[in-house]
Amino acid sequence: MFVGLLVTAGVAFFVQSNERLLSFAADNLLLVIVAQFVLVFGISLGINRISATVALGLFFIYAASLGLTIGLIVSAYTTASVATAFLSASAMFGAAAIYGHVTKRSL
Predict the structure, then answer these.
(1) Residues 6+ apart with CB under 8 A from 2
(2) What are the counts of helices (DSSP H) followed by strands (DSSP E) for the chain?
(3) What's 76's DSSP letter?
(4) Phi, psi (5° rounding) for residue 90?
(5) Which residues contact 58 (CB under 8 A, 6 or more apart)?
(6) b vs e for 79-105, b when ≥16 Cβ sit within 10 Å of the residue's Cβ?
(7) What pLDDT, in 10s, does the model give residues 41-91?
(8) Is the pTM of this model over 0.90?
(9) Interatomic CA distance for residues 8 and 76, integer angstroms
(10) Helix or strand or coil: residue 37?
């Protein structure tokens, strides 16, 4: 999973630094999102029939397409708004984790 996160972050960084790729992603956003859904459904339906190598390859393709989408979304906002959203989401996750640990409840 960590490698998938690195792939996603790497592609997102590359998208933001490459104007041509950023333009492609913006022009074909609907196509990219539909392709992501198709890929997820394809992996989900065929997970018991495909080999582990093919599943891993499809996962990396999905992670790369997610990086493309995230790179486009992040480029549309200011650095401050992205940082604020990240910090607030991190704080909510941390608070839920602490709440679950203290109360011993499954969240």
Answers:
(1) none
(2) 5, 0
(3) T
(4) -65, -40
(5) 39, 42, 43, 50
(6) eeeeeeeeeeeeeeeeeeeeeeeeeee
(7) 988 998 899 998 998 898 899 888 888 888 888 888 998 998 999 999 999
(8) no
(9) 17
(10) helix
